[in-house]
Specification:
Non-ribosomal Peptide Synthetase Peptidyl Carrier Protein, Chain A, 4 helices, 0% strand
């Protein structure tokens, strides 16, 4: 799956997790842009990403992603490893 498809799926996880419209999300969307996305919610988001993609993300890298595009790139990198 190319990164665009991965980004679309990452957006869907955000939408499902936080109840926001997929259309309001971009690769540049950060946790600060989404109401209710705090450190605890970020762990729930990471779990959702791992479930959606069937991967185990390196926790420190997953905690350090700055936007949805970075999360899509991390998922792509983990899937290719």
């Amino acid at each position: 799956m190319e990164q665009t498809g991965i980004l679309d799926q990452v957006k869907q996880v955000v939408s499902d997790t936080f109840g926001v419209s997929v259309g309001s999300l971009t690769a540049e969307t950060t946790a600060n842009d989404v109401e209710g996305w705090d450190s605890v919610a970020h762990l729930i988001f990471i779990n959702g990403i791992e479930s959606a993609f069937g991967v185990r993300l390196p926790m420190q890298q997953a905690l350090d992603v700055s936007n949805l595009g970075d999360m899509a790139k991390l998922v792509q990198d983990v899937r290719q490893a």
